[in-house]
Amino acid sequence: MDAPAFVPDVWAWICNLPPFSQWKTSSVSLCICTSTTKQPSMFLSINKNSTSHITLSIVTNFHVPVYLWTSSPIYLSNKMQQTLDEPELIQLFVDIINWVLRYGPNKKYTFRLGAIQTKENFKNVFNLACLTLVFVVCIYEAAPHDLRRGCVDALKVQLTSSNAKEFSKYLVRILGANLEEEWMRTLNLATTNWISEIMSSSSSFRIPSVLFSYAVSAIGLWKVQLYCPVIAMNMEESSSLNQDERLAFSLKYQHVEGVVQLAYKTTLRENWVDVEIKVDNVRLVITGYHKEKCSNYLI
User: Fold this and answer.
1) Are 243 and 256 in contact (CB under 8 A)?
2) Fewer CB under 10 Å: which end of the chain, C or N?
3) What pLDDT is attached to residue 237?
4) Are residues 80 and 152 both part of a single domain?
5) Cβ contacts of residue 298 below 8 Å, gap of 6+?
6) Which residue range forms the structural domain that includes residue 28?
């Protein structure tokens, strides 16, 4: 059996849950991350307090459970249903996507999923979306500092891994172009707030690389799409001794969206193939999280 692309494997955990009638309590939990201190751990919890629906929650285990986030009700097809099937998993996936988008700067976007089958890469796309939600909730909701720091660091490793980058391609295809931009703005705004918090308490904090990029190809064209929060980019030292604090603050809450397009042509020779490549378009857009695009650079 292949190793899971993400740990914990939320999809496998949900699919392998015992029938509801065998649950000893009204909820079952999966540990997301643990703290190295006496601070509590963080869990995903599926709760079935009704015969008609279930909910998914992100919980920290203080002396009593503290719920940081709870999904919308995921309705079962009938009261006799004993497991979560494909329709419920798709309901949950859509709800997770929409909750992530609600943490973004633009609240008007809603994700509606067309026809999809839970095959091939969907389980990894589901895991990616779920861990992304946990990442955002860790940053914004009132988790204890030590636990939040440890969980965010652990999730960052997973969300910037080669597996995550590969399955992000499938996720953005499902989202579509408009929601792709909003998704990345949501993640980069959360990342900006997280980096700002750490920098305010640690002058020696090394900003991590959080550039996200992916490539797609078509006949005669290669395209690279990239996103990066400005706060995570290396800054060149200014020759001016006077720094504009307002400009610095403004830039901190911007991110860069970039597109690199390469046109190519192949010619079959007798013993080789000629490949001609030229730069078709390079576009960089500096976008404020709470405003419209402020700068657009075409090369």
Assistant:
1) no
2) N
3) 64
4) yes
5) 281, 282, 283
6) 1-175
